Amino acid sequence: MEYTVGQRWVSHADAQLGLGIVVDIDGRRVTLSFPAVDEERTYAIDTAPLTRLRFKEGDHVATIDGVELLVTGVIEDRGLLLYRGTDHHDEEVVISELELNAFVQLTTPQQRLLNGHFDRNDDFALRVATLDHLDRLQRSDARGLMGSRTSLLTHQVYIANEVGKRHSPRVLLADEVGLGKTIEAGMIIQQQLLTGRSQRVLVMVPESLLHQWLVEMLRRFNLRFALFDAERLAEADGDNPFESEQLILCASDLFQGQDTLKAAALAAPWDLVVVDEAHHLAWSESGSGEDYQLVETLAARSRGLLLLTATPEQVGQASHFARLRLLDPSRFHSLEAFQAEEQGYRALSAQVEALQANEIPADLPEDVDTTEGADDIIKQLLDRHGTGRVLFRNTRAAVRGFPERHLHRYPLTPPEQYTHAVVDVDEKLHPERPFIDDSWLGFDPRVNWLEEKLKSLRPQKVLVICASADTAVALEHHLQMRAGIRSSAFYEGLTILERDRAAAYFADDENGAQTLVCSEIGSEGRNFQFAHHLILFDLPLNPDLLEQRIGRLDRIGQQSDVEIHVPYLEGTAQEVLLDWFDKGVNLFTDSCSAGNMIFERFKDRLLPELNQRSGEFDALIADTQTFTASTREELREGRDRLLELNSCKPSVAEPVIEQILADEQADTLQDYLESLCDSFGVEHEFHSEQCLILRPTEHMLTGHFPHLGEEGTTVTFSRDIALAREDLRFLTWEHPMLVEAMDMVHSTELGNAAIATLKLKGIPAGTMLLETVYTVNCVAPRELQVERFLPLSPMRLLVDARGKDLAELLPHQRLNDRVEKVKKPTALAIIKQVHDDVDAKMRLASAQAEERLAGILGAAEATMREELGAELARLEALRAVNPSIRDEELDHLRHRIEECAIHIQHANLQMQALRLIITT
């Protein structure tokens, strides 16, 4: 064998290595690089188990850029092969063998079978099942939305479905507090990644929310973001650190005064940038802050942009305009023009209210067809509404389903130990902090009160939140060791796994903790709505933090009223703040999305009162009440009904939710996973209803099984169980374990060749049947989403001795249940005898499959042109009345239609599996 650097060879001892490249020849040794597995192997030249890869005219080859060529000629030049061929545009291309894709199917099922390499019939069945499931998932309208560990709320699913399917989405998510903007963003990110529309995502959040986002993305969406902080960046090498990861999470203020970091972030390519708490970005007509300028530049260079804020437009119209300006600066170019447009939107909102009351307003826009019914007129107005495509805002009033909130106040006498003079407001609100040990537990009356209250509430679950981790740890230890109350602590010093265990212990109904004692992070990112008692051991100064604390229990799906218990020390800053929140803002019993704005308005008058209540405090309460009432009224009056309708369309979301739930309620996924485990040698054991324990074994087919830990993994198929038990993996068809395991089956040879015998009445013994499975092979960029119109489309044929297809008479499952295993020596003898017959039947089967393929491709192109063409026509018509539809969006849709058509026309058949069956 003669080797030349750059040649492509195949290891027939280990086909899983993919296509190798000769990189070095040294005396009697040759070294090959295998890019598919990122390995190098060195062989003795005389005994190397290598075969030279040579394609011939008529073969299909794929390049490293994903371009598929039909080979029309082969030239050898100084030991290297050059392939001449035509691409999917029918243009002639010449490539070197160096440009061949390393991920190539090196042997067909027919070659394996006829060479005596075949698998168990169970593996064959697994392969067929995998192809069927992949095909079904590619066709699903719920694709990209199945895998989230969420409650599938209508407004969240609608937004994720609407925005996640867009090319380069640029939207503002502005739902009120408690409606789940982070979840909506996660669902959009997950769908963009799963469907290939995005690959690189940058998320920027306030530092206090870093852990919440990290946990939410991992636990709810299986998205493993890399956390970039000053420490990580200091350890980075000379290359751009922002190009080292695909998914990056960082604090918004990480770049403050750091020009080098800014340049690095701006130099990296991003498909999607996400900014939480976007109302903090400073902008005015006269200038903008450093943070705004950075996001503005990132927004201009990134295709997609998600901005999150709970601050309503009425709180600051200029700030609202500044956020919209980031999404589309050409559309939102002038604050004055925007304010004029807003008046028109208010008029439309009033018209919608009239239409909902079955009244047809006389002043409807001229281009609206008033002969239609009220519902149809509203639909026309929705399409024409100015910010409806870029802004989504759901309100608690519109969504509904929230519980009532009740405040219970418990005045306690301050102990002598807390009467020393303290100037710092923080220490006045949290008087235990100056103590370097836990001695305060012995005299703080709130501790004894907490013991008695928890005992009186038994066995009901109680969530306790306090400001600091030290306070939470001390309280939990006291309750557990001194008071005999089952409890668990949840604070920032724990690892993510430890937090999961603490939350799971709290969620366990039978043997779990009665109470979970949390530091401030307990008000972030976790769902404890199975409890309805909340004890606030202290109060935060920030109203938004208080709303977040209450929001852990006050959520959609809460079955009971939320009981809020607040112990406080009389005559101290604690009572002053409680009175202001309760009597001034009414924040305990009525959610307020403008809480922080109200605090900023009265902060200069409130803070001195915390140091020493004065005779002015009653006036402060009265003024706060008046301002809060007017603010709430303004928010109610300013509610944009048209925008709310456009932010949640149940008729669109509910069929998607029904499809997701139908997939989950069937046993199909659990049955399929157990088949996977059997084939790959993974042990599976019953844990409880809809839950399994998976463990690796020493006899696994491959060195690892995706996302299976060394100690094993407990999984559940139930969404309800997963929401209550965050320590369990929630397996869906889109969980990375399933996605990667299915890819392992699809992309390898497992189960693609088999041999069996079958007893059939009326058919002579020794009759040969050939069961073949083909799929459609369409090589196209993922972002085109061609599989939406042209999925795998498995074609099964069962060819008899005369070439007749018996697939309908003998369905796969029925056949699978009846076939029997053939011993290896017998199988090899059979194969030797029927070699020529198999070739003949394969030609017949392939001819029939090719006939079917023509119809499939024609139907796929027609469906694609009909669906995308209708969407294009709709958006082109609306472009005239709704400038929020971007030219880029229309251009991409036109490009997608033409590119999809080209790729569909050049799709071909791929044989996926072959089974030889001999009747007995």
Question: Can you walk me through this structure?
Answer:
One of its GO terms (biological process) is regulation of DNA-templated transcription. Belongs to the SNF2/RAD54 helicase family. RapA subfamily. GO terms for molecular function: ATP binding; DNA binding; helicase activity; hydrolase activity, acting on acid anhydrides. This protein is an alpha/beta fold. It folds into 6 domains: 8-106, SH3 type barrels, CATH 2.30.30.140; 154-328 and 390-398, Rossmann fold; 334-387, no CATH class; 405-636, Rossmann fold; 666-733, Dihydrodipicolinate Reductase, domain 2; 750-919, no CATH class. It has a 7-stranded parallel sheet with strand order 12-13-11-14-17-10-18, sandwiched between helices. Helix 24 links the parallel strand 27 (713-716) and strand 28 (729-730). The longest helix is centred in the C-terminal third of the chain and has 56 residues, at 824-879. The two termini are 46 Å apart.
